[in-house]
Amino acid sequence: MTSPRRDGSEAGILAVRDLRILFPSRDGRDTVKAIDGMDFAVQAGETFGVIGESGSGKTTLGRALVSLLRPTEGQILHDGADPEQLGTRAFRQHRRDYQIIFQDPNAALNPRMTIIDSVVEPLEILREGDANSRRRRGIAMLERVGLSAEAADRYPHQLSGGQKQRVNIARVLMLRPKVIVCDEVVAALDVSIRGDVLNLFADLQREFGLTYVFITHDISVVSHISDRIAVTYLGKLMELGPAEDVIERPLHPYTRALLSAEPIPLPSHLRVDRRIILEGEIPSPVAPPSGCRFRTRCPSVQPRCAKEMPAWREVRPCHRVACHFATADGPQPNNQPAQAAS
Ligand SMILES: Nc1ncnc2c1ncn2[C@@H]1O[C@H](COP(=O)(O)OP(=O)(O)OP(=O)(O)O)[C@@H](O)[C@H]1O
Ligand code: SF4
Ligand SMILES: [Mg+2]
């Protein structure tokens, strides 16, 4: 069982503790710190949104959450237990509870297999039921995700992107998982059908009692679907809190900048007064900046930010932030002048 912790990772269907995931760089000479210290917990039945720019470690985190990647350091607990400690057989059985769907609708579909064969394949691997019962269950699931039975004997190239993503959802649901990590699942879809697919996710969550980790770089997607939102930057969490609170009253200068760049029509009282331009690229995760890793782009940077790494503090109820100067009123209550980052 887990013991109480002060960093917010104490309990949940997923608990991430002191997580670090390092890769050797492509040339083998350096270490990429893709996840460099994260602590949080996801509660059963919630939709936990993860947002951040490209390269901030979202996919790495998602893969680790479903045991496709091993932590280099730290732990990811599933329902309080460490899957790393399970034997091979128990691990295989356990993994069906923690599934992932990727951005590319083709990623999990074999172009030479019919749709129904792809949908029932996970059950076939687990030797669950006979061929007839698997097909019956597969067709019922295809219908549940909004596809007709006629789609069953087609091939992936005969389906649209949106239909293929529905097939991927059906394939994963065949395993009756507890948790689904959704990694940019609507990013490759036409804008006109994104809302329908997001609504399908919401309906399925109610029906199957699912927990979602919804990874995206698109604020309109997380704000639409999430109960809580975590903001990632260069392998660390910058902010984590109730979705409405994060969107309406962000605590971190990075979140504020992301929101200010968002074209979605937020109500006027929620709109930040000016667009904050984030200058430059996200720095390399091989050698992240000292102290606060957002400091090279932060409009509110102070000398202290280069020297000290901000603590992961709860400044509003259930709302944490990693910024020296954030208070319950927001990122910079005194409107302190920005200074050049070194
Ligand atoms: N297998 C790997 N080997 C080396 N570096 C990797 C590997 N996988 C990811 N990285 C690096 O780790 C960092 C985080 O990558 P990740 O794919 O998790 O980011 P992301 O937030 O999902 O980005 P995007 O929004 O573009 O999908 C990046 O710098 C990436 O290049
Ligand atoms: S700690 Fe400093 S650099 Fe980091 S977000 Fe806060 S003000 Fe900006
Ligand atoms: Mg990614």
Automatic annotation (TrEMBL):
Keywords: ATP-binding, Nucleotide-binding, Transport
Membrane topology term: Peripheral membrane protein
Pfam annotation, one family: oligo_HPY
UniProt GO MF annotations: ATP binding; ATP hydrolysis activity
Residues in ABC transporter domain copies: 16-259
Domain of life: Bacteria
Subcellular location: Cell inner membrane
A GO-annotated cellular component: plasma membrane
SUPFAM superfamilies on file: P-loop containing nucleoside triphosphate hydrolases (SSF52540)
GO terms, biological process: peptide transport; transmembrane transport
InterPro entries to which the protein is assigned, alphabetical: AAA+_ATPase (IPR003593), ABC_transp_ATP-bind (IPR050319), ABC_transporter-like_ATP-bd (IPR003439), ABC_transporter-like_CS (IPR017871), Oligopep_ABC_C (IPR013563), P-loop_NTPase (IPR027417)
NCBIfam families recorded: oligo_HPY
Family according to the record: Belongs to the ABC transporter superfamily.
Job description of the protein: Involved in beta-(1-->2)glucan export. Transmembrane domains (TMD) form a pore in the inner membrane and the ATP-binding domain (NBD) is responsible for energy generation.
Cited PANTHER family: D,D-DIPEPTIDE TRANSPORT ATP-BINDING PROTEIN DDPF-RELATED, TRANSPORT ATP-BINDING PROTEIN
Protein name: ATP-binding cassette domain-containing protein
